[in-house]
Amino acid sequence: MVRIHKNIVGKSFVGIFFLTTSSAFCQIDIEVHSRLDNFMKESCEISYNEITSTSVTSILKYEVFHIIQETKNIYDEKEKSVNEFIVIDNGQQVKRFERIKSNTSLTELTSYIREDFTLNQETAPVFQSMLDYIYPIAEWKPDKREFFFKNGKWYFLRDAYFRTKQGFEITVNSEGKIIDICYKMKWNESESK
Q1: 60: closest CA among 106, 102, 103?
Q2: Which label site among 23, 64, 149, 167 has the fewest CB atoms less than 10 Å from its CB?
Q3: What are the residue boundaries of the structural domains of the chain, listed by start?
Q4: What letter would DSSP give residue 99?
Q5: Tens place of pLDDT for every residue, the chain, 193 residues?
Q6: C-alpha–C-alpha distance, residues 178 and 120, integer Å
Q7: What's phi and psi for 7, nearest 5 deg?
Q8: What pTM does this model have?
Q9: Four-CA torsion 14, 19, 24, 27, nearest 10 degrees
Q10: What does residue 141 show for φ and ψ, rounded to 5 degrees?
């Protein structure tokens, strides 16, 4: 029993020691903090550009932005590092669009669609254009985009590997209102044109 008590006390002491020393490293002098902020301001440029395309504004309820963050002059390198983000501002917070990993249900994207938007033969090219803005295809990839309607669902092909197609599957009701959006990594042959 004494051994267990010593072990618990010893581990507690080590834990408290690490908490105390790690918090000591976290506290930065106000002047140092200001210099670090100035360094980052001089090294980074951030631009916010609203995407005002008709395809985006006529389909989505909220404003969409393209953010570009450029980092330069780090380690005296001439090149700059560029990060780009596509985000949506729902009026309460700015959020990124859902990340596509494998077969992904896109419930948030579905909730961003305007109630008065209907997906049909006339609006399908506009929807394709909206997808190009919010889920852009990498420039190095060949253009495999196409769309079609089959069995009550719209399919927006974004990529293809060998004989496998992948892209957005949009379920609509009889009036063309979007009920569900998902990204499928592999379409069955029966789902293709």
Answers
A1: 106
A2: 23
A3: 44-191
A4: P
A5: 444 444 454 455 445 544 544 444 567 789 988 998 888 888 889 999 999 999 999 999 999 999 999 988 777 777 788 889 899 999 999 999 998 888 899 999 999 999 999 999 999 999 999 999 999 887 877 777 899 999 889 999 988 777 778 899 999 999 999 999 999 987 765 555 5
A6: 10
A7: -65, -45
A8: 0.75
A9: 170
A10: -80, 145
Instruction: Tell me how far apart the alpha carbons of residues 178 and 125 are, in angstroms, rounded to a whole number.
Output: 15
Q: Whole-angstrom Cα distance, residue 77 to residue 192?
A: 48
String of DSSP letters for 2-39: HHHHHHHHHHHHHHHHHHHHHHHHH---HHHHHHHHHH
First to last CA, the chain: 73
